[in-house]
Amino acid sequence: MAPSSTVKLFGICCPSVIIQAWSSAVPGLLNYNEKAAGIFYSNRLPISTSARSYLRLWAIGEMFIVYIVCAVIVIVCGAFLFCIGPNRDRREKMRPFEERYIAHRGLFDNDGPAPENSLLAFKKAVEGGYGIELDVQMTTDEKLVVFHDECLERMCGNGGILCEHSYEELQQYTLARSREKIPLLRDVLDIVGGKVPLIVEIKSEGKWKRTCELTAGMLDGYDGIFCVESFHPFAVGWFRKHRPAYIRGQLSTNYFKDESEKGTPWAVKFVLTNLLLNFVSRPDFIAYNHKDANVLSYRICRGLFPVENVAWTVKSRRDLELAEKVFRVIIFDSFIPDAK
Description:
Layout (H helix, E strand, L loop, with lengths): L2 H28 L18 H36 L10 H4 L3 E3 L14 H10 L2 E8 L5 E3 L6 H4 L10 H4 L14 H8 L5 E5 L5 H12 L6 E5 L2 H10 L5 E5 L13 H8 L4 H4 L3 E5 L6 H9 L3 E7 L2 H7 L5 E4 L8
Parallel strand pairs: 1-2, 1-9, 2-4, 4-5, 5-6, 6-7, 7-8, 8-9
Antiparallel strand pairs: 2-3
Helix pairs in contact: 1-2, 4-7
C-alpha cells in the first residue's frame, strides 16, 4: 500500500475502531457482576447501586481518556503534515530540469584540467548539454564566488576558511591539480548564458542572509532557467519571502548517517532529516540524498504531496537506474550518463 493510502486509512479507521469497541464494552461494564470483579461465587449476586454508579463514572472516565488520546493523535499528525508540507502549485516549472541530467559542480575531473566548480567544468557541461548545479559563497569583500567546501584545504591545499578571505586573496590559489581558479558567480552565469538549466545552491557559511541578497540581485538580471536551493531552511525561506517567484528547493539527507554531522545536536539532526522546517520555506522541490530515499518523513512527504523530487548525488550507472525509480531530476558526477 502506498504511504498516502496507509496514512489516510489509519486516520479514518483508528478513531472509529476505538469508539466501536467502547460502545460494546460500556454496556457490559454497567451490568457488572462479581465475576468481573474477580470474585468467583457459584451464585450471582446483584451489584449495589453505589458500585454501579462508581463503575459508570469509571467507564465514562475511561472513554474520556480514549477521546483525549485520539485527539492528541489527530493533533500530532496534523502538526506533522503541516510542518513537512511543501509548495504544491509549481511542479510544472521543474520540467526543464527533468529533461536533462544535472552535472554536479559542472562536468568535472579533479585529476584533470577541469576540476569541480571551475569555469572549464561549466563550459564542458554546457557543451555536453547537461544542466548545472553549483555552490555560492560570499567573500569578505562581498564577492560571490562558486566553491563548495567551507575550508580551502581539499581543493586548494590551504587550511583557511573561504568566507574569511577576500576575492583578491583567493586568486593566489588554483583548484586541485589544474590552473583553474575559484570563479565569480557572474563569470559562470556569462558562460552558461541560459543555454542549460541552472541549480544554484546557497551555502550557509558566513553571512548567509547577505549571500542570499547578493545572489538574488545577480539572478534578477539573468536571462535563463534557474532555481535556488539550500540545506539551510531559513535561507530557502528567505527566497520564499523576498523572491517568491523563484523556484526554490530544500536540500536534505539522513543527518544521523552523515559522518560530517557528528557534532550536530540530536534534535537538530532529527528536525532536518525529517523536513520539519518545510513550513518555513514551503519548497517547490525536495533535493534528497538518493541513498536515503526510504527515510519515513521523506516517503510520506513525496507520497502525500505532489512535490518534485531531486536526487543528489548519483555516482554510477547502477545508482542511476535505482534513483530513477524514485526521482525525476538527477544530479550526477563521477561518470557520464547517456543523454535523456
